[in-house]
Amino acid sequence: MERAGFSTAMAALAACTLLLGACAFKESGYGIGAQAERAALMQAAADKSAPPDTPGMYLGLIGRMQAQGLYYASLAHIDAYEKQYGASPDTILLRADALRATDQPAASAVAYRQLLDTPLASRGHRGLGLLAGASGDFERASQELAQAVALAPTDAPTLSDLAYARMRGGDVTGARVPLMKAAELDQHNSKILSNLALFLLATGQTREALGLMDQQKLPSAVRTEIRSDAAKIAAAARVRQRNLTRPGSAQAASAAGTAGSANASSAPAAGGSAAAANDAVPVAVAAGLEPAAAPARQHSQ
User: Fold this and answer.
1) How many CA atoms, within 13 angstroms, populate the side-chain half-sphere of residue 241?
2) Does the structure show a pLDDT above 70 at 6?
3) For labeling, which of 7, 27, 141, 197 is most exposed (least CB within 10 Å)?
4) Which residue, among 103, 102, 74, 106, has the nearest Cα to 90 in the 3D structure?
5) Structural domain boundaries enclosing 226
6) Which segments carry the TPR repeats (predicted)?
7) Distance CA 51, CA 45 (A)
8) What CATH number did the domain enclosing 224 receive?
9) So what's the pLDDT on residue 107?
């Protein structure tokens, strides 16, 4: 592992970025004032234009409402749409997202499960993963998000969500590849970049993490949130490591068998030197980091 190479790649990736926001599993745009302002703008726009007269136009309007954070209004319009045109995977997804955003997880989960046998199955698994993560079940979140990634392997937000879930579950090593994929696929996504800063902290690369946060001029509240998540990840990693090394566990038995096979085929050159070397392994190596290829210089849409 060349730590300098990895850090250089991280710096190059950070240089391509413009914005950095809150961590995964969290919505943006909180606040009564902001919500009221958006509602007024949407109402003004509605007053100046005719009601949508095609299903596509109506779905577009509902999608724009959700993009502005008007999830309750979108639920009302989803009801109206389905009354006129009937339900479809698109409306089920819009409903599931709105229910999740309005703190109705049980109803949201029902809607997401309805998508699992449709062309939007990946979105269904992603939604179930986000619900699990919001409830603190990061193992289940990782499972659902991994299924979503398998169905949509180039979806950068889902890759980033998977990385975040794995980190929060203590599997920092398993977070690296999906996070790097996400960061190179979408170099301007604020949540992905937030998870990148979090990953750098979680792997002991504090200087690089602080440099990224400084470059993006993050407010103190966001930095505090990232540091808080990093502390939670460290605690989860310790628990996971204890479980992996517990005598009699399946993971420990598997690791012991692998180590025994390796020792049988290749003995250390000097007694005790291997153990001493392992004790001196840097944090980045222990986390499974390897030199990352330089990111693409141009962001592809």
Assistant:
1) 10
2) no
3) 27
4) 74
5) 3-24+53-244
6) 122-155
7) 11
8) 1.25.40.10
9) 99
Question: Three-state DSSP class for 136?
Answer: coil
Residue 114 within any structural domain of the chain: yes
Cα-based angle 238, 232, 106 (whole degrees, multiple of 5): 115
* DSSP run (H or E) holding 12: helix 3-15
- Distance separating alpha carbons of residues 143 and 9, to the nearest angstrom: 29
Per-residue confidence at 247, pLDDT binned at 50, 70, 90?
confident
Residue 257 within a domain: no
Sign of CA dihedral 252, 143, 189, 152: positive
- Residue 122 is encoded by which pair of tokens? 């990946």
Residue in 127, 164, 165 with CA at minimum distance from that of residue 148: 127
CA distance 4 to 289: 11
- For residues 20 and 212, what is the distance between their CA atoms, to the nearest angstrom? 9
Computed over every residue of the chain, the mean pLDDT equals 77
| Element housing 120 (H / E) | none
Q: Name the residue among 135, 189, 246, 231 with its Cα closest to residue 17.
A: 189
